[in-house]
Here is the input.
Amino acid sequence: MNKMIWVCLLMTFFASPVFAQNKPSNSTVTQGKKFKPPVLKTLLLNFTDSVVVSVTEAQQALGGKLTVMDAAKKTYTLTYYQVLYERRVMTEDEETGKLTPTRTLISDHFKTTPLPQTWVSQISSQLKPGEMIYFFDIIVKDAQGRVMYAPDLKLILR
Here is the structure.
């Protein structure tokens, strides 16, 4: 009986899984040095940050290439971004026939720049003052494959 208990204890000891803690891999740690991402700037033609532009300037910018660079003018590979177009529209009350101004959103995500021609032509033909084109969730990679977020870009139409 005593022998049976020892055999059961030994089997339990060897059968129980043992997991060691692994050091989490962090892509920002390279050869023992912590990576500090550079300050990035997002450009569409010569527009950056939040800028007020005319309808004509926005139409020209939509066909341009979205670029992300740092202070040393080093460009980064664009891997993903989203574009949101906030447009002004009118809604009609079915009972009274009264028109009320409101806004609608058109948005999509992209992995290449410039924007597809169908998107550019469709939005360019609808642009009006008071609307906005917003580039956000911009993700870039550097030469070592480190992933970083770039600042958003907003074109506000006057």
